[in-house]
Amino acid sequence: MKLLDILTPRRLWQQIGLAFAGLTAGALVILGFLLISASRNAVRDSVLRDYSEIVRNTASQLDNCVQGPKDILINTAGAIGALDIKDAATQKFLLYRLVTDYPHLFERAAIVSPDGKELASSDIAARQADQPTPQGGADGNVYFSAEHRPYITLSAPINGIQGPAGTLVAEVKLNSIWEIISKIKLGAAGE
To answer: Which member of 91, 107, 117, 177 has the lowest number of beta carbons within 10 Å of its beta carbon?
Structure first.
């Protein structure tokens, strides 16, 4: 009891001051906890917004990796059909130009007849009989080359003046997907 008497002030203004100091300290402790919690939530929300934006941008870029070449194939197939190009040498030239104009996108392109026979290709040398011709039905299949590079087969129908004239098929390089993914940096260590 003696210790409590020593610590308790005897004058009223000292008691009020001690009570006020206790209330102020308690309020500051509560306010500190609230501010720490609010700042933790704000940082978490900010990081989640940043990650969400990274995901949206990456998804858009990845979509362009496939949709861009698909649009080029559709436009080229439309031009071949509208111009009713049936000459094999002209078809071969157009396919060669397609591959050389977009070397970062296309590895090889071919025109396949409705019955599945290759009519023309972008290859300079003749294909050997044991080499498979990509078919329009294999559209969207991802595979890896012998050099472990990813490719996808895309196709677009060629509609000539007298109806379906075949399919434009292309092997599209997917290296750009790896480049896009490797540029993503998350966290302090860039993981």
So the answer is: 117
